[in-house]
Design goal:
This protein is of the alpha/beta class and 285 residues long. The protein is 33% helix and 27% strand. It folds into two domains: 134 residues, 3-Layer(aba) Sandwich (Rossmann fold), CATH 3.40.50; 145 residues, Rossmann fold (3-Layer(aba) Sandwich), CATH 3.40.50.2020. The strands form four sheets. Strands 9-8-12-13-14-15 form a six-stranded parallel beta sheet, sandwiched between helices. The longest helix is centred in the first third of the chain and has 16 residues. The model has no long low-confidence stretch (mean pLDDT 92).
Length: 285
């Protein structure tokens, strides 16, 4: 299968150009030699791209239609971060379920053979998206632990504690522990929010203060929850190192600020490229 890489054109099997018009319109012009076109028509094409905003969505729609106009019928979409992942419910009366009502109907209307997402925020996306395929954060976690420890030995199991930042992430963290063969302690923190939805209180259970802390989650935005956990653990007398593993990182300044509490942060370039000291990137694109 050939790859049309909208996020990194130099890595794309299929050559294309993006045109910009004065009114803001974008267009994707695909160029495929006849021999390769025959192959694409027979074996299909995967569109590999970011889906951070409606500009990216427009490019996906244009690229898909350009390929169909060339006779390519089997088209797959790989977008590791999915726009609006956390907006999986109605937050207020009179609003909408962003995934169910806005984004997924548009993607479903493009009739992809498959839509692959890395470490999606919740099961709602799977319920709303046709031909959904999920990739867990296993490779991201193994990358991080390989940097921290020699994970072929038992060093990581004996020296670290896996931490879920809240109850919602606990199911994922037990799953990843099983995938990487982790047999040590797992603790789950909890958080409370005020009426405006802002974080008001974080609860961290007792833990062995001499061990390293490995917090794992899917999305880093401003990082308030992670910073709060780090600060509370310091107050509880934590003596080991603290590491944060987050699959999708959005706010650059938030990452920089979080390094006040963490020895290193591990993430991917699913949303954007990161070039920050002590932030190590697992490359998706």
């Amino acid at each position: 299968m050939k790859i049309l890489n909208l996020a990194k054109p130099e890595a794309s099997d299929i050559k294309f150009e993006v045109s910009h018009f004065p009114d803001g319109q974008q267009q994707v012009n695909v160029s495929i030699p006849q021999l390769d076109l025959n192959y694409c028509r027979e074996h299909g094409v995967q569109i590999k791209t970011r889906l951070n905003d409606f500009s990216d969505l427009e490019l996906i729609i244009c690229a898909t239609q350009s390929l169909r106009n060339l006779g390519v019928k089997e088209i797959h979409l790989y977008t590791p971060y999915f726009l609006g992942s956390r907006s999986d419910r109605k937050f207020e009366t009179g609003s909408n379920n962003y995934l169910k009502d806005v984004i997924c109907p548009i993607i479903n209307g493009l009739c992809f053979e498959s839509v692959t997402v890395l470490d999606p925020h919740s099961d709602v996306l799977e319920a709303c998206l046709n031909n959904f395929r999920k990739i867990t954060n296993e490779d991201v976690v193994k990358f991080a632990l390989g940097e921290i420890y020699d994970y072929d030995s038992s060093e990581g199991n004996s020296r670290m504690i896996l931490v879920s930042p809240d109850a919602g992430a606990s199911k994922k963290i037990y799953k990843i522990a099983e995938q990487i063969g982790y047999k040590g302690d797992i603790i789950t923190c909890s958080k409370e929010r005020d009426n405006a939805g802002k974080l008001s209180n974080t609860v961290v259970p007792d833990f062995p203060v001499e061990k390293d802390i490995i917090i794992i989650d899917d999305i880093f935005d401003f990082g308030g929850t992670f910073k709060s956990i780090g600060a509370i653990m310091n107050d509880m007398g934590h003596e080991g190192n603290k590491y944060l593993i987050v699959t999708h990182s959005i706010q650059t300044e938030g990452l920089k600020d979080a390094l006040k509490w963490f020895d290193c942060i591990y993430t991917t370039n699913s949303y954007k490229e990161h070039n920050i000291e002590k932030v190590k990137q697992f490359n998706i694109f």
